[in-house]
Amino acid sequence: MKHRTGLVIGLLLTALGAASFGSRMWDWVLNFDPGFSFAQPSAATGAPLSAGVTVLLVDGLRLDASRRMETLNALRARGADIEGTVGTPSFSRPGRATIAVGAYPAIHGVTTNRQKRMIPLDNIIRRVGALGGRCRIAGSKIWPGLFGKDIEACGVYRAGEGKEGPGAFVRQVGEVRASQEAGIAFVMQEPAMLRIADIISTDFAAHEYGGASPEYLAEVQRTDPVLAALLGRLDLSRETLIVTADHGHRDAGGHGGEEAQVLAIPIVMAGAGIRPGAIVKASQADIAPTIAVLLGAPLPTASEGAPIESALALDESGRASIHAAAEAQHAAFERSVSERLGVTAAMSSGSDFASLAFAQRERRKAAIFPALILACAGIAAIALVVVRLARASRLGLWAGAIVGVLALFGPIGSRIPPQSFSAINYDEMLVPFFLRIMTLAAALTVVAAFTAALTGRIFVRRPKADWAVDSAGAMGLLLSAALAMVTVCWWWRFDLLAPLTLPGPDRLVESFSLTLATFSTSVTGLLLMAGFGIMEVRASRSRLAPGGSEASVRS
Is the pTM of this model over 0.85? Predict the structure, then answer.
């Protein structure tokens, strides 16, 4: 039994290590706060181009679906048709934060819909309040969750109806449609410098039926008359209308990841201050600074986006003034980012946030590279020594490893779900998604362990149960050690758990899946050892009993 102690300890330590790392990663993503602050004075943009800006946010509206809306296409023709790109993770809460702040999740820190903290950073709602302007906002409860104090300072908010989930569209669509139309009426009820209204029934339809479904397209087209009614209440000679989205959707439904259909959204602007016929590409982070220019408000200090100058109706003098303000704001923004990251422009390929963040990440990676090598070497050495001390058949372990690899790239691997947040279509799918990863890892361990045990049984004359215990433990430890080393390399490559930078959402899903697979493999190895150990004890008792196999052999 002593030769198995190392296997048990090794599997336990691997399982505990994976569980600890997984828990830290979950907390880190959910509570990610890079802690950026921007205390510099706001950059003035000059005289307003518009008396007021109304933003109609159509939740989950894909760019391609938006081009099948007749009223929206007419609005494009009389204004600016902007192909927008959202940030990642591409969820509703991060999207709304980006629209108001003018910065992506790596700056404002909002990574999921599960976060509850308010954003302390400067934003367009706060800018309106600082000017003494009024704001009226209706729709998702995300708005007061992110900017409650800023909304209270400049105006009022009206909550929308509905909660996403399987079957939610069918159950709630009538109430949701009525609520969102009431929300539009609410924001138009009184004069305001900034109005924001949500349409969320489109997102419900996409989650329920998919972004390429006729049901989703029908719901998108139902938004067209709502938009037409809103247009009838606006004076676009004085005011500006912006129609946009927080994110798109996969064909099968779902968002949060980096798929092209998820990241591409419309940004259509028309009315006062907008140049008719403009066709532009821009980012979601450009919306807030563009609204600031339209309203004559200073640029939000936390904005990494820039005013969409080519979409604005400006003369040469006005364009130069706006350009100078944007450059001044960006310079101050980059100084603050550089100080927070501890990286200067001289250390990176540029002074923009992406370059500074990349340089900071590379510095961290270089600093912890020795720890990576030491960790991987330690895991491999300990696992090999423990397996060597065990009495498992080397031939059996080789056979188990080969069959395991074939299964991973064959029937088991083909069942691994896409490693993207978008594949988790509802919150209710989160646990089943990762349980599936753990189940597949357990199945792989069972297949490899049984192959190792069977091969050892065939080529070495020892009791079947005896070989099964050793093979299960050794195979489980080898697999979990291999996964642990891959997880460590993933942690180093993408700088997971870094306090100031955030890797892409697909990398986060992959890393969490690897961690849970490591845990599952270790636990499965322990359970197989326990199960086969019970069989071994029973077989031993049977051999020692009167009339048992040992007595028969002696006779």
Answer: yes
pLDDT of residue 187: 97
pLDDT at 555: 34
Is residue 349 assigned to a domain? no
Is residue 329 assigned to a domain?
no
3-state secondary structure (DSSP) of residue 21:
helix
**434, amino acid identity:** F
Determine contact, residues 357/501, Cβ cutoff 8 Å: yes
Q: Which of 273, 325, 281, 267 is nearest to 301 (CA)?
A: 325
Is residue 520 within 8 Å of 470, Cβ to Cβ?
Answer: no
The dihedral through the CA atoms of 460, 464, 470, 475 has a sign that is: positive
CA 422, 356, 35, 38 torsion: positive or negative? negative
Rounded Cα distance, 57 and 267, in Å: 10
User: Of 77, 105, 117, 359, which is closest to residue 247 (Cα–Cα)?
Assistant: 105
The model's pLDDT over 463-518, given as tens digits with 9 standing for 90+, comes to 555 667 888 899 999 999 999 999 999 999 999 999 998 899 999 999 999 999 99
Q: Do 109 and 70 lie in a common domain? A: yes
Give the residue numbers spanning the domain of 166.
Answer: 53-307
For residue 57, the SS3 value is: strand
| Domain membership flag for residue 38 | no
Sign of CA dihedral 412, 414, 419, 424: negative
Whole-number pLDDT of residue 545: 66
Structure tokens at 123: 């934003």
Q: Phi and psi for 546 in degrees, rounded to 5? A: -55, 130
User: 89-122: buried (b, 16+ CB within 10 Å) or exposed (e) per residue?
Assistant: bbbbbbbbbbbbbbbbbbbbbbbbbebeeebebb
* CA distances (Å), origin 258, targets 236, 503, 506: 35, 12, 7
Residue 390: inside a domain: yes
